[in-house]
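Take a look at the protein record below with the fold in mind.
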Amino acid sequence: MKAANSISKDTYGLHTVKLPAGHLILYPATSLHHVRPVTRGARIASFFWIQSMVRDDGQRTLLFDLDSAIQELNRDLPNHASSIQLTGIYHNLLRRWAEL
């Protein structure tokens, strides 16, 4: 199977992606995309939808940024009290914003 060659356009512009066979591309449903035709071999594809528990994109972005900062803090200062406190804030925000 030949590697996938995909073009997508999102809020960050136009992207061309070519991954090795067996890899995947994950993108928001709001992104337009186009997959180029297979020129050799065969394409075996699977698609699915996932939904975040946090509906609002801005809230998801804040949670992602907070989680990234917590992970970096944990790398630099493992088990630091600030990291533990920020992790609690992250989980409280997740509980507040999640739609179950």
